[in-house]
Each structure stands twice: as structure tokens, then as C-alpha cells.
Input
Amino acid sequence: MKNNYITSIIFLFLISPIFYLGLSAQSRFKIPSYDIDIHKFGPYIGIQRGRYSSIEFGAEYQFKEFKLIKPITQAAHFGFNYNLYKNVLGYDLGYWIKQGRLNLSYGANIIYRTDYNKGYIGLAPVLGYKLSQFHLQTGINLLPLQAYDLAINKFFVSLRFVLIQHRNMTFEKE
Output
């Protein structure tokens, strides 16, 4: 037993300089960390359903901070939608953000709706889920009460597909 105790102490004295050298080498040779940002841009096509159906076209710019844990994706978009049957045109200018990989996206749109005689400006808060290039959103169009005489959805669900045409990655050393 005494022999095992002495052997253990000798082993610790021999191995400790290796750990010390390894720790000091790590402090001398730090691995640089990089901040990786991904910028994407492209047109989208979609459909908006509610009481009335509209087809959507537009463009979206996405900005993503690449992280292994909780990446942040932000996007700004501009587009128009058109109700073919009721002849109502709408413009949307919006922003949304998503934190994490499988979390919900949330944002808001500034909207304009017209039947070519009267036009109304409003706001549309949206909540959605983005998977790959598809983005499913639901929201409510907040417009003046007289605007709902037009064929405008108060509550809606929108499904968009973004065709990414330009992708740019930037690497910055921290």
C-alpha cells in the first residue's frame, strides 16, 4: 500500500510539468475568433389568405449573425399584393426578426391598401415561422374602420417563398 502511495506521488510530480506547459502554450497561442455575418437578397412570391385571397410579389433582404447557439436573423422587405377578384392593390414595407434556429419570427409591416378610388395606410403586426426559404406568417391588418368596406383581410395568413439570388459572407476578427 505504501508502495502505491509513493508511486502515485512520483507520477504526479512527473506529469504536472506537462500540464503546466500545455496551459502556458494555450495562453501563448490563442485561437482567433471570428464574427461571421451572412447577407442575402432576393425576390419573393407568396399567397395571402383570409376572408379574401391575394397574390404577393416583392423583395427581401436578410441579415444573419452566424452562431452555433441562438443565431439571430433579421430581414426587411418591400412588396405588393393584389386581390384579382375584388381589384384591391396593397403595398407592404416590413421588418421581422428571429432569434434561434427553431423559434418564431415576429415583426411588423407598414401597409397601404387601395381600390383605386380610396387609399388607406395602416400597420400589421405579424408572427411567423421560417423554415429554409419558406416563411409562414399570420397577422392582423390595423386600418381605419372605413377601410374594411374594401375587400381587405382583417386577419390573414401569408406563405412566402424567397428566391435567394445574392449571398455575401463577411468574416471579422474579434
Remarks:
- Strands lie at 34-49, 53-66, 72-83, 88-99, 105-114, 119-131, 134-140, 155-162, 166-173.
- The chain has a mean pLDDT of 87.
- The longest helix spans residues 2-28.
- Helices lie at 2-28.
